[in-house]
């Protein structure tokens, strides 16, 4: 798994590289200190995943994510955020980012997020998911209830199988993992995911995961935990 890391703070880049180095299946192929250079290096190295800081000088991580998704859609994007950057998270969703991690989170979350996005899944760290949903509802109880009800109405339009798939998307599972949980072939899951995105009117798996969280749709536990 080839990964690019972009952050304007050398210490953060070193920390991300050190965490990723604990997985022998991951190779950091390039580092950048700003979004413009990150895009150039993604074009040159074509990594499976680009890990981008949200706020960088010049071209920020969100603009870089949008350019990467336009030019090299095979490269998944994971955004690194800090608390208080909720508006940036929502903008990054629109830019096509598939993973969102808190810089102060556990190292295991970074590895899980990079793996998930490399496999074509979305990954919202639990703290990010909670912040996004809270931010969407921050304008008052009436709007909070309205958003929750709107999300539930959108989910209600899905078939039971599509709702199962959406719940697992909200849990950050890849198509292969969902297929194993639902005892389906991966191609069938891929078709269900495409249908879910189209029927919800969202552009990517991360945005669908936000809908799942907002609607309170939780994935069933693995069979061994039931």
TrEMBL record:
Lineage top rank: taxon: Bacteria
Residues bearing PTM 4-aspartylphosphate: 53
UniProt xrefs under Pfam families: GerE, Response_reg
Domain HTH luxR-type: from-to ranges: 151-216
UniProt xrefs under PROSITE patterns: HTH_LUXR_1, HTH_LUXR_2, RESPONSE_REGULATORY
Keyword Chaperone in annotation: no
Membrane-spanning parts: none
GO molecular function, one term: DNA binding
Keywords, ordered alphabetically: DNA-binding, Phosphoprotein, Transcription, Transcription regulation
Segments forming a coiled coil: none
UniProt-listed GO biological process terms: phosphorelay signal transduction system; regulation of DNA-templated transcription
Residue ranges annotated for the Response regulatory domain, each copy included: 2-118
Entry protein name: DNA-binding response regulator
Natural source organism: Streptomyces violaceoruber
């Amino acid at each position: 798994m080839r990964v690019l890391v972009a952050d304007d703070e050398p210490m953060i880049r070193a920390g991300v590289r050190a965490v990723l180095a604990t997985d022998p299946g991951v190779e950091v192929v390039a580092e950048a200190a700003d979004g413009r250079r990150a895009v150039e290096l993604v074009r040159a190295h074509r990594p499976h995943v680009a890990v981008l800081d949200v706020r960088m000088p010049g071209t920020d991580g969100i603009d870089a994510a949008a350019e990467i998704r336009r030019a090299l859609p095979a490269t998944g994007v994971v955004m690194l955020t800090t608390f208080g950057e909720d508006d940036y998270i929502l903008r990054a969703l629109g830019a096509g980012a598939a993973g969102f991690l808190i810089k102060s989170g556990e190292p295991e979350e970074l590895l899980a997020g990079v793996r998930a996005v490399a496999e074509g899944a979305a990954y919202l760290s639990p703290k990010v998911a909670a912040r996004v949903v809270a931010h969407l509802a921050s304008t008052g109880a009436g709007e909070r209830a309205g958003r929750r009800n709107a999300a539930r109405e959108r989910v209600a339009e899905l078939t039971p199988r599509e709702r199962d798939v959406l719940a697992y998307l909200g849990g950050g599972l890849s198509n292969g993992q969902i297929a194993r949980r639902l005892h389906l072939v991966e191609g069938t899951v891929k078709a269900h995911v495409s249908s879910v995105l189209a029927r919800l009117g969202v552009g990517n798996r991360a945005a669908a995961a936000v809908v799942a969280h907002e609607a309170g749709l939780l994935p069933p536990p693995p069979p061994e935990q039931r």
